[in-house]
Amino acid sequence: MKLYIAVGTAVLLVMAIFIIVFVAYYQQKQIRQQLILKEWQEKYRKGLLAATLQAQEHERRRIAQDLHDEIGTMLSVTKLSLNQLGRTVEHNDPGSTVLVQKTRSLLDETIANVRRISRDLVPTTLERFGLVSALEELAEKASNGEVHVELSCSDKMPTLLPQLDLTLFRIAQELINNAIKHANAENIIIDLHCQPNGVLLSVIDDGRGFDLDEILKDKKRGLGLRNIESRLNVIDGHVTFDVEEGRGSRIHIQVKNLKPEVEVEVEAV
Amino acid sequence: MLERFFHLYLEHPLELTHDLATVIPIVVGLFYANPKRKEIRFLLIYFVFLFFRNLISNIYATYRINNIFLYNFFNFIEIIGFGLTYYFNINKSNFKFYILIGSILVIIINVFFWETNEFSAGILTLTRIFGLSIALFYFVELLAEMKVKNILKHSLFWVSSGIIIHSTGTILIFLFSKIILSTRAAPDIFFAYWNFILIMYIVFCLFVSVGFWVSKYDEDNYA
Ligand SMILES: Nc1ncnc2c1ncn2[C@@H]1O[C@H](COP(=O)(O)OP(=O)(O)O)[C@@H](O)[C@H]1O
Ligand SMILES: [Mg+2]
Known about the structure:
The complex is a heterodimer.
Chain A: H1 2-92, H2 97-121, H3 124-129, H4 131-142, E1 148-153, H5 162-183, E2 187-195, E3 198-205, H6 212-217, H7 223-234, E4 238-242, E5 250-256
Parallel strand pairs in A: 1-2
Antiparallel strand pairs in A: 2-3, 3-5, 4-5
Chain B: H1 2-11, H2 13-31, H3 38-62, H4 68-87, H5 93-112, H6 121-145, H7 155-175, H8 177-180, H9 187-214, H10 218-221
Magnesium ion binds at residues 174, 177-178, 224 of chain A.
């Protein structure tokens, strides 16, 4: 009897140790698998985001092309006909000449607008002359009597991957728009700096600032700021909001100029 | 009296080791554990009680007074201590409910098994089964919910392992305590099994000490 108790205890103990080891081993295995799954999901999400952004750019390009080629052409043809009409009218009904002239100037304005919109939709300067020129153009266009936008950048900018160029440009566009629209700023500085294996883009304004947490709390607001984050997510970039109510905002974008995981081809035009 | 006290220890060195082993989790728990965690606090209190039980039972032994009722009584504290520890660390509401009902039920049944002069096989065995069950419940929850990243840095994993080893190691001995731990049992048999119980308790103390030690990682360890 006493021996049975000893043997039984030994058997139970072996079972107990087996259970403990099994739980420890199995749990670690489960966690490892979960980690792999999470990584995979993250990758998939990034790929999806990249594809969405790419589709957006494609769509813009298509709209720009349609605007330019179809509407633009139609407008030019219309202008030609109007000119002919004008000449006929001058002979027969001099009273209507003013009306024709007015229509012509309206048409001219429309043509200019279509051209501007189609140019703004596709960052042609960016594709032809690179990020620095595109930002210069952006600063120039945004400057007027009330705001002064200035670009400062280090002399030797490394050539960036086209995808980085486009992302940085779109982000700069959004940030400058924000500074003009919301901040009531007088001076805006775009600062482009190269860093060891990366680039730092800062947009600094002297406006009224804002409370980032409050804006991100509201799901419907801050779409522009959220877009910046998702764009950066695709290229493993990083944004730092150095903002506060009552003083100018400083927003820094950091990207690595390395080959990223997710490939997005941007076709040159 | 002190002389007799020391004599007792010299006669049973394992008893001394066992009493010292109770101090390890208290020291680790007081100075190295994360005091914010509830399971640490309940277990620490449990070990302080254990320390005093040992002290009192040794004093009784020195005066040759029967101290076995202390061992029986301590099982009630054990049920409450373990019950509270796990009650506050299990998320599944039905497990929580089982633990609550189980603790109350086991305490009530144990009252009917009460014995003053002999080890109560009923109390001791039921308490082991109770400890074993909640530790296994906790393992099931650990596997089902994957709530920790590194199980080796999770304090309740070590505590549960300690409880499981201690319970499985002693449950049969306590179940047949009428034969091997009674006053009528042959002294060599009694001491062989009694020493084994002490060893199991030392192992338990060591496991809990490790659990207390890793409790500082617990906060970052939840997945
Ligand atoms: N530079 C800034 N200065 C002050 N407020 C800003 C600035 N940038 C953003 N904000 C605030 O953050 C809000 C969210 O901006 P954004 O996400 O770009 O959305 P939107 O420009 O469409 O309003 C704005 O409504 C504005 O109140
Ligand atoms: Mg905006």
